[in-house]
Amino acid sequence: MFVRTALRTTLITILFLTCSGCTHLAQDRWTGKDKAQHFVGSAVLAAAGTAYAERQNMSSAESRSFGLLFAISLGAGKELWDSRQGGTGWSWKDFAWNVAGAATGYGLYQAAK
User: How many domains does the chain contain in total?
Assistant: First the structure.
């Protein structure tokens, strides 16, 4: 039940973000120091979220979903913050690095177990 609700909420949030009028978009490149920070940060958050969920006695699927959604939702929140009037702009490239980092963090956490 938790997984379906979380997935539905994530899809609605992504739909909202893609249809909302962000103040502006970033004009950035695919590489750079901040991309590595997005990747590593999301990897750590996904691993930490998965570990937390496991310690809360969630099932394997629920802990995986929790860890991934935790990291990705924080990345989306950060990009939403960047899209405000005084920010650097929403960056789909940063968001892609967040998703890649979250998947990698979860994979490394599972490999280390």
Answer: 1
